[in-house]
Amino acid sequence: MSIHTDGPWFKDEHGRVLLLRGVNLGGSSKVPYTPNGATHLAAGVYDHRNVSFIGRPFPLDEAAGHYARLRAWGLTFLRFLTTWEAVEHAGPGLYDQAYLDYLEEVIGRAADYGLQVFIDFHQDVWSRFSGGDGAPGWTLESVGFDLPHLAESGAALLHWAEGAAYPQMAWFSNNVRLAAGTMWTLFFAGNDLAPQVRIEGEPAQEFLQRHYLGAMQIVARRLRGRPNVVGYDTLNEPSPGFIGQRDLNVYPSPIRSWYCPTIFQSLLLGAGYPQEVDYWQFGVPRSRYLGKRTLNPRGVRAWRPGHDPIWQTHGVWDIGPDGQPRLLRPDHFCRVGDREVNFYRDYMRPFLKRVAQTVRQEDPTAIIFLESDPTSWDVHWAAEDAPGVVHAAHWYDGLTLVTKNYYPFMGVDSTAETLKVVVGLPGRIRRLYRDNLAYIKDITRQHMGNIPVLIGEFGLPFDLAGGKAYRTGDFTTHVRALDAYCNGMDDNLLSWTIWNYTADNDNQHGDQWNGEDLSIFSRDQQSDPTDINSGGRGLAGFVRPYARAVAGVPMRMSFNRRTGRFELLFRHDPAVVAPTEVYVPRLHYPHGGRVTVSDGEYTWDAEAQLLIYRHTPAQPEHWLRLERP
């Protein structure tokens, strides 16, 4: 099957509309396989040039089992994770050819199971060495950072440095700490905001982007011609760093947890100046302020010997006559000359266009999956920027994600600038999910043209309530939450790839990264390796019937998990002669079911979990209904 875009839809070679269902593969692909790069492990972490990602998402001899499981669960579209570090960890321009060989082979084997993929160059808060994953360690070293001192200086919050004290779901705060905040600012706006920073004689912005794009290009070149490679994501959840910040004396995040230095304090901490910073305990509906705490009491510098702090060099701050640091340019990151900067317009959009141009030098038909700062909806795109694109937005039930508790009576309105908490009956919260997702479709139509939307990430932690389900074996709460999320997707006829499938997930360390545990599969739940469902978590919530190919334009699709009633309504397209295909999982219909159609005929292949419906063209609209016997 081929996939292309046509207006707001994905379509196949027959002209059928495709509703894609898939998964992010995999969560531990963020870290090296050899030596084990799980973020709770500290040994050897700074020998970052001598690593290998061969074996991520799984060793080749395990591929068949994992791919067969995903196929059986109806998840046939993979957001396949790789990282810049996986490709170019050894140094600038030194590509890991053995890893590229592995990448070709593992993606090729996905095709044997009818699995389509798009490649996600993943990152979180820039790099493993600034608290996340993505960029090689040498990128930070190239601008003067001293990697072993980033944690103690307060420049980064690192799992292996904090150990058991690592705060829950606080890794994203690194975007506004010194290390990641600086790297993002240099990557996108170095020419404007840090023109004195040069790497090997080249402006930092051009050096960093050129090498990132070079890694993308070498992967696209390797995978060119693979029939199951549909396209490429631009860059997972990019951050503006310090770009656009108007007040450097505030902590620039609405979510407060652990140490919360202002941006100015972050700059000073990295320069070796101890700071009294606000300390918060995260809570719902609001965090609790616990007072001041001293960060970097020993005055450790985040910068290597011989390297001055970048933002001091650029006049953002300096030492006053009294010998104390003082802020000189509070508007440095929000203005360039007389112009007020806009992150998306001035930096992100030109970068996205550059990604599209780079990929299509190798694969002219590749679909480009666009991402921007996930905290902002200020996304615009036009056909002349690049055709054949998809808005690959992410959506999470933020309250559940951050607290690791599911509140069926409470949710967050992600369309509100202040992330408003909404309280009501479960039905109201489900409507909130639907409306939040509808908002993504609306802004896509209004600001990006009539392009498809794919929710590239959604999901929930499986260690809810302190991992209660691991002790009881009861994943009912997870099923309930995932069902609510998927109902919102169906209500909006959205394609999606759930986060995530981690082949080496376990109950103790989850996805092997920063304490996250969102994998729909775990070895610790796999009691019977011969059972295709064994190891699955919350399956009944996301393994559900859906119209994977529609011989017309879908108008409505719904599934009631309790009653087993599935309904599809679509409008006839006279140009399409291929049938409509509906995935019908045995999980929900172990004893078959009753099918009713508006017209035409159908066949049900229970082994393939597939219902084939051929409608007659005599009427403009057609429907199909499926119920348990």
Short description:
The chain is built from 15 helices and 30 strands.
Which helices and strands, and how do they pair?
Elements lengths: L3 E3 L2 E3 L5 E2 L2 E5 L37 H10 L4 E6 L1 H5 L8 H15 L4 E6 L15 H6 L16 H4 L15 H16 L4 E2 L2 E2 H20 L5 E5 L24 E3 L2 H8 L4 E7 L6 E8 L14 H4 L3 E3 L5 E3 L7 E2 L2 E2 L2 H20 L4 E4 L18 E3 L6 H6 L6 E4 L6 E4 L2 H22 L6 E2 L8 H9 L3 H16 L3 E7 L37 H4 L3 E5 L1 E9 L4 E8 L7 E4 L10 E4 L3 E5 L4 E5 L6 E7 L2
Parallel strand pairs: 4-5, 4-22, 5-6, 6-9, 9-17, 17-18, 21-22
Antiparallel strand pairs: 1-2, 2-3, 3-23, 7-8, 10-11, 11-12, 13-14, 15-16, 19-20, 23-26, 24-25, 25-30, 26-29, 27-30, 28-29
Helix pairs in contact: 6-7, 7-10, 12-14
Number of helices: 15
What is the quaternary state of this protein?
A: single chain
Q: Which consecutive residue ranges, at least 5 long each, have pLDDT under 50?
A: none
- The outline comes out as globular
Structural class category: alpha+beta
The profile of the biggest β sheet is:
8 strands, parallel
Helix content: 25-40%
How far apart, in Å, are the first and last alpha carbons? Answer: 32 Å
User: Strand fraction band?
Assistant: 15-25%
Mean pLDDT: 96
Number of β-strand runs:
30
> What is the rounded Rg?
25 Å
Across the major sheet, the strand order is 18-17-9-6-5-4-22-21
